[in-house]
Queue: 2 jobs
Job 1
Amino acid sequence: MSATTTLPQLYSYGHELEMTDDKVGLLRDSSDAAEDFPELRRRVAEDGYLYLKGYLDRDEVLAARASLTTGLAAADVLDPAYPSIDAICKPGAGYVFKPELTNNNPAVQSLLYAGRLPEFYRQFYGEAIRHYDYTWLRAIGPGKGTNPHCDLPYMGRGTHGHMTCWVPYGEISFELGGLMVLEGSHKRTDLLEKYVYRDVDAFCTNKPSEAQAAQAGKWAFSGTLSHNPPTLRNKFGGRWVTAEFSPGDFITFGMFLVHASLDNRTENRLRISSDARYQRASEPIDERWIGVNPSGHSTAGKRGRIC
Ligand SMILES: O=C(O)CCC(=O)C(=O)O
Ligand SMILES: [Fe+2]
């Protein structure tokens, strides 16, 4: 197999990806079919995801970025020597997870939950939709990105037919490191069935160590599928596909698609993105992610059973 000439060497979770055409590639841009919902549904079924380049209003996304970088500055994550909009972090910032920056934030709330995006999902599902109230906001500093996983173990107590929407807030080069998905992995139920139906907040009441961990709000199972993206790909087949992202792009995929992210190989810049969830209004919803102050993975979200 020939080397992929268009792509530089990519890194994920501290590993070099194997850069041959059969193992790595670019996300398929579905903006050519953005109004053709039967075709979009067909592509999700086939590839496992949709990448809609430039679908959202660039200025709205940049306004949301400004609100987020202001919040990151206030949280002392940014180097004050630079304009906050540049999201230059202090040394050692690491993987910053700050969902609270999206609360009472009209720029982010309206981008994700009013206007084009919810309308997209309404048409995609062909019926009324609703979204989680909780928004995952990530500002990832130099170092490792996100390891390979499916989303279901974190949010599988309602429907399994919901979708994740990943939105970049700014330009994300290969070096800054955006999302990557494992093409076709949602079809590998043979490899996923023992992993994907486990719940990260479930614990065995009759196992003292697990019960104690749950009391402390910790997880017995992290939800991680692998710490080694190249090895995982060799097991699953398919290609890791990613892109260089711009404000206005989004990716959406279902609960069974394996995904991860590229490492942030910059010296001092944060990669800012959010992930949100949408589903049919008629289907049950995972209560951990609903309400003004969702319980999430805290102690209140734990579910014990005798194993
Ligand atoms: O942004 C990332 O690194 C991970 C995102 C993710 O796991 C998701 O969107 O479900
Ligand atoms: Fe995820």
Job 2
Amino acid sequence: MISFVGAGPGAADLLTFRAADRLAKADVVLWAGSLVSPDVLDHCRAGALRLDTKEMTLEQVVEVFAAHSDAAIVRLHSGDPAWYSAIGEQIAWCVANDRPFEVVPGVSSVSAAAAALGVELTVPGVSQTVVLSRLAKRTAKSLGPGDDLAAYAAQGGLLALFLSAGDPARLQATLLGPGSAYHTGTPAAIVHRVSRPDEQLIRTTVGEIADTLTAHDIRTTALVLVGDALAPAAGTCVGRSHVYDPAFATAYRDATS
Ligand SMILES: C[S@@+](CC[C@H](N)C(=O)[O-])C[C@H]1O[C@@H](n2cnc3c(N)ncnc32)[C@H](O)[C@@H]1O
């Protein structure tokens, strides 16, 4: 079995029980050392073969899969493997080569960032929509037609931007481009290396994103969150949910006045 396992954002205790179980039983562990924290490998058994994939190609990774056909293999990806993890091409190899696989979800950096900031990203009365996206850079061809950050900025809502801190001026210019729903005062947050000992949480505004990233020399392993849902400080919620409103009937209780 090849298990594609979410390694979480860094802290070794931000894994699922299932992820820890797969790591404890694995014969071979391939981990992306550029993003996966080495602390997570503490869950591996002593005799497991550990291979850092940060200098490997897809071809070299699947060569390891092919060479260990009867082994329990864990392929560790940071956060949740559903987002920007390149598991799709590895799953295609598994299907083409008749190899059983599973995906073990993880704690995404976006969930960990919201937790560290102490915010809900879907605030009733403000925004109920979160868009996970990225700025197009060297890998622009990965984006499909119309998959354009400027178009999402025009919609508003809460934007969670991965892989985008390396080009601060263009990031800010795109967020404030023609037709954008955001303005220089729109709340933003930069979350760097969340859940790791050197975590940085910086609340700022869209108009200050570029200067803030540059001043803190943050280029990688950072999320940029943008939107009015970030506005309230912890404990100053601006809206409330229908589901816990006494005047709103649900399938489990009647409305009371
Ligand atoms: C290749 S993507 C992987 C995302 C991952 N699958 C997830 O769910 O978090 C790498 C990007 O995720 C974000 N990221 C990953 N770990 C992070 C962390 N500990 N703190 C902040 N951002 C992180 C950064 O935007 C980074 O450039």
